[in-house]
């Protein structure tokens, strides 16, 4: 289930009037998971957008995850949440969302954090950033070979994030990433649908 292109939305790249259209193009291009990530204030706007994305994702049978915000995930009946090390604890999210929810955990460059997340019942672990990221330039870097070690030591799906593009995605997929989480290279593209197709197609080579 956690396999292929994992698209993440961004409030700067996608203002409210462009968000649904851009996401639908990505879904048409074969995105396998979608994360709604919006750190701007405005609970009512965020709820409205998340509900809209949930309807779109349902049409394409794609799970919607919500970044950081458990209450929003519950309110829009999302498939799950993505949590960082400074966010809500995995155990609380699992207890509130139930055993079937998708819960992803950011592990930066740490196999120890990943083992902890695996033991705690995470659905996937995310490592990164692997390349320069336009969206989050200050995210701590992670070495590509971390994925090889993670692949041999963990049984959970591995998500790679941070500066992933059509030109470098093969480097993380060939080292064991099950999914690539992408913001800028997808949503800044002039043809989002085609870019989604191109990013997904890289998995066929491995
Ligand atoms: C798939 C995926 N991986 C990592 C992150 C980053 O989460 P976090 O460290 O909590 O940072 P913010 O996204 O909240 O800024 C993610 N969102 N998704
Ligand atoms: C949200 C996020 N988290 C990261 C991490 O390393 O934890 S990198 C990142 C931004 C990903 O966007 P882009 O594909 O534009 O680089
Ligand atoms: Mg977070």
Which descriptors would you attach to this protein?
thiamine-phosphate diphosphorylase activity, Thiamine-phosphate synthase, 38% helix, Aldolase_TIM, TIM Barrel, binds magnesium ion, binds ligand 3NM, eight-stranded parallel beta barrel, 206 residues, TMP_synthase, alpha/beta, globular, binds the ligand Cc1ncc(COP(=O)(O)OP(=O)(O)O)c(N)n1, magnesium
Question: What does the model show?
Answer:
The chain has 206 residues and is an alpha/beta fold. The protein has one domain: TIM Barrel (Alpha-Beta Barrel), CATH 3.20.20.70. The protein is built from nine helices and eight strands. It has helices at residues 19-28, 43-59, 70-75, 90-97, 111-119, 145-153, 169-173, 184-187, 192-201; strands at 4-8, 33-36, 64-67, 80-83, 102-106, 124-128, 158-161, 179-182. Strands 1-2-3-4-5-6-7-8 form an eight-stranded parallel β-barrel, surrounded by five helices. Helix 1 runs parallel beside helix 2. The longest helix is centred in the first third of the chain and has 17 residues, at 43-59. It is globular. Residues 67-68, 84, 87 line the site of magnesium ion. InterPro entries: Aldolase_TIM, ThiamineP_synth_sf, ThiamineP_synth_TenI, TMP_synthase. Condenses 4-methyl-5-(beta-hydroxyethyl)thiazole monophosphate (THZ-P) and 2-methyl-4-amino-5-hydroxymethyl pyrimidine pyrophosphate (HMP-PP) to form thiamine monophosphate (TMP). 4-amino-2-methyl-5-(diphosphooxymethyl)pyrimidine binds at residues 35-39, 67, 106, 136. Its EC number is 2.5.1.3. It comes from Aestuariirhabdus litorea.
């Amino acid at each position: 289930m956690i396999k292929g292109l994992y698209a993440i939305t961004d409030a700067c790249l996608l203002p409210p009037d462009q968000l649904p259209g851009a996401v639908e193009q990505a879904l048409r291009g074969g995105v396998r998971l979608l994360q709604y990530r919006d750190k701007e204030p405005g609970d009512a706007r965020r709820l409205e957008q998340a509900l809209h994305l949930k309807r779109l994702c349902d049409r394409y049978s794609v799970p919607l995850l919500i970044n950081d915000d458990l209450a929003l995930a519950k309110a829009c009946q999302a498939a799950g949440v993505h949590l960082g090390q400074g966010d809500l604890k995995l155990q609380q999210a699992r207890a509130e969302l139930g055993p079937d929810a998708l819960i992803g955990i950011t592990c930066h460059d740490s196999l120890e954090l990943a083992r902890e997340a695996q033991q705690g019942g995470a659905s996937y672990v995310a490592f990164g950033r692997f390349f320069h990221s336009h969206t989050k330039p200050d995210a701590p870097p992670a070495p590509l070979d971390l994925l090889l070690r993670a692949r041999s030591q963990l049984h959970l799906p591995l998500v790679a994030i941070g500066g992933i593009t059509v030109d470098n995605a093969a480097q993380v997929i060939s080292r064991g990433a099950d999914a690539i989480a992408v913001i800028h290279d997808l949503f800044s593209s002039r043809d989002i649908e085609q870019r989604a197709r191109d990013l997904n197609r890289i998995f066929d080579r491995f």
